[in-house]
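Protein modeling request. Please complete all fields; requests missing the sequence field cannot be processed.
Requester role: graduate student
Desired output: 3D structure, token encoding
Chains: 1
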Amino acid sequence: MSMISDGVVVIGAGQAGFELARALRSAGYDEPIRLVSDESGLPYQRPPLSKGFLAGQVAAHDLLLADDRFFPDNRIEIVAGKAVNLELTGRRIVLADGRRLSFDHIVFATGARNRLFKGVRAHSALHSIRTHADAMRLGDRMRTRDDIAIVGAGFLGLEAASTWALQGKNVIVLEAQDRVMARGSSAAVSAFFASKLGALGVRLELGLQRLRLESAGPESVRMSWGGGTLDADVVLTSIGVLPNTELAAAAGLPCDNGILVDEFLNVGEARNIFAIGDCARFPSRHFDGMTRLESVQNAVEQAQTVAAAIAGERRPYRSVPWFWTEQAGAVLQIVGDIRGDEAALIGEPADEEFSAFHFRCGALIGAESVNMRRVHMRARRLIGNNENLSPSKVRELFAHESA
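Delivered output (403 residues):
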């Protein structure tokens, strides 16, 4: 007698969820695959939302990860709805409308949500970018306004600042740290991009203490900090994200700044429960402990790892993390961990082509490359091979790049 399989249910239809479904079919998995999505429409890319899409250079259909024929052709079902309960013993998830979906394997690809600034919770002038709807709403407001304030000088905030400055908008960036991209880049890289943005006319206000937002009327928000105030009718907040762990935590699964997984991306002791992408916190030799990464590379490669496990090839996730951002006409690519105790510079910031290699206890752990794609690719291979290179050896290997 044949057994009926309930297949894989993926909670989340973003980059990680989509890549998992695609990888499963590529691996020959033939059972049902269902993507539970609390957004309308087909899965789409998020990175262009703060760059090309915001600039009007990327159309909505160009954001799609696959066209509408891909899903029926590959027997991948998109289930519209929000998962509100997980019944582990019965292997079912419950949707907000009462529907129940049974599963053999379940994968959390629930992503993350934007942090909310303390103070104003909902206001016509206050925006963030996480979804296509967010970007559409912000773009509509910007069509009739030329002044914008951005709270947060991280990657996304500065990408948006660059996009609008290149369109001739007046942009001010407010940041509590004393340099831009302080959490994700070195001082040399921060200084380079601060200079590039300044040359575009972006005003940077750094090291702000006690920054607060409050309503200043029906069409504007007031920002205040020690020694200054500013009223703006368009405010983009970009102060980080929080992983969506509520469903997993309510089911008794381990969570702490993400859904905790082992090296195989399993949650807890169960071999049929996984978490991937922005919501997953996993052990990483590159970051010396448990970490959670928000990048397309991490989402894609974790999805491929879990797809292989479900299809019968169980292997640990040990990919080298890398990231990129494009701002003010320059591309920054980062690999590994940049939180070292020593650095070696290849090239010169003044030439707008340079790389900063980072070391801990004399060993290479990460690299940042500005407009040096070839160096970045070589650095990825070196770090991926776990080669124990010293600063002097790195300078020797890349000497010709700065000649």
